[in-house]
Amino acid sequence: MAISIRGEYANPKKSPWNFENYHSDLERRMMDRLEKDPFVKKWMKRHGITIPWIDGQKHQRKYVPDFFVEYEDGKKVIIEVKDPSRIDSDDVQRKRKAAEIWCKQRNMEYMIMTIG
């Protein structure tokens, strides 16, 4: 299970902001990974992206994915970090499907990642 910690990631080099907030240890570790990845040009948690999705009770919801990432080759990706035990949940899969459609319409990719 993911450790639920919150905090401030200070002075990221590849984010346009001077800090980014994280809501779990998985998000913090992803920030470290994105900062160290030589192929990542830019990343941000405060990206302003909201994706509509429909939950199991047919209610419309709003999903804010974890990260927007732009790579050196120009590829743009939305990344959601999840604990492996949650990937197969109904809500995660519904959000994934909505995000994949949203990204495809914008020539972007969507990925769910786990951090080991």
Describe the SSE topology:
Layout: E1 7-10, E2 19-22, H1 25-36, E3 40-44, E4 51-54, E5 60-63, E6 67-71, E7 76-81, H2 90-104, E8 109-113
Summarize the structure.
By secondary structure, the chain is of the alpha+beta class.
What does this protein look like?
By secondary structure, the protein is of the alpha+beta class. It has a single domain (24-113), classed as Trna Endonuclease, Chain: A, domain 1 (3-Layer(aba) Sandwich). The chain contains two helices and eight strands, in the order E-E-H-E-E-E-E-E-H-E. It has helices spanning 25-36, 90-104, and strands spanning 7-10, 19-22, 40-44, 51-54, 60-63, 67-71, 76-81, 109-113. The protein has a four-stranded mixed sheet with strand order 3-6-7-8. A two-stranded antiparallel sheet has the order 1-2. A two-stranded antiparallel ribbon has the order 4-5. The protein is globular.
